Amino acid sequence: MVIIAVTALVLGVFTGTFWQNGFTALLTASSDYILYLLMFLVGISIGLHRGVLKSLRQYHVRILVIPAGIIAGSLLGGALTGLLTGTPLRQSTAIASGLGWYSLTGITITNLMGAHLGSIAFLSNLMREIFSFFSIPWISRHLGYFSCIAPAGATSEDTTLPMMIRYTDEETVVISVLNGVICSAAVPVLIALCSHISL
């Protein structure tokens, strides 16, 4: 998945640089519709998790603690990084709002704030996913199973789920899926809210 994403990015940069024609212009003009299609496909993915509602009833409000902590930690990390790099708060927190969902974050921030920040958002959230793959085995051994969900963020229901299955237990996997669904649903809202911060 990571190799495919990086390859697609490199091919996109190459195409935009050396092969500008009607096809690339059509894709650029249709970016909003591509985003809507992506959101529709994510909705299908969430709907396919038939055990989500049952698990929500089982865990009640407790299930919100982990995604709330992940969202708060991500936004705080984005704000601190913005202070260190001199990036405006609205930009740094919007980028951090991706919670590891690099495809949606890159497109959305490109539409809201331009291609430069969209590229940064794509790469930073892709790096979060890559970091998750390498850190989950260590975290599961030294910090506990539930802690493995934090670096995965919104990807804990799909791309990093195989790592959860391999290195954690059944209960953590269920909560991982629920966390991914909640974080994925929150990403567009968080990006929109952060992009309107006046600081």
From TrEMBL:
InterPro entries: LysO. It comes from the Bacteria. Signal peptide: none annotated. Keywords: Membrane, Transmembrane, Transmembrane helix. One of its GO terms (molecular function) is L-lysine efflux transmembrane transporter activity. Pfam families: Lys_export (PF03956). The keyword Membrane applies. GO terms for cellular component: plasma membrane. This is Lysine exporter LysO family protein. It comes from Candidatus Lachnoclostridium stercoripullorum.
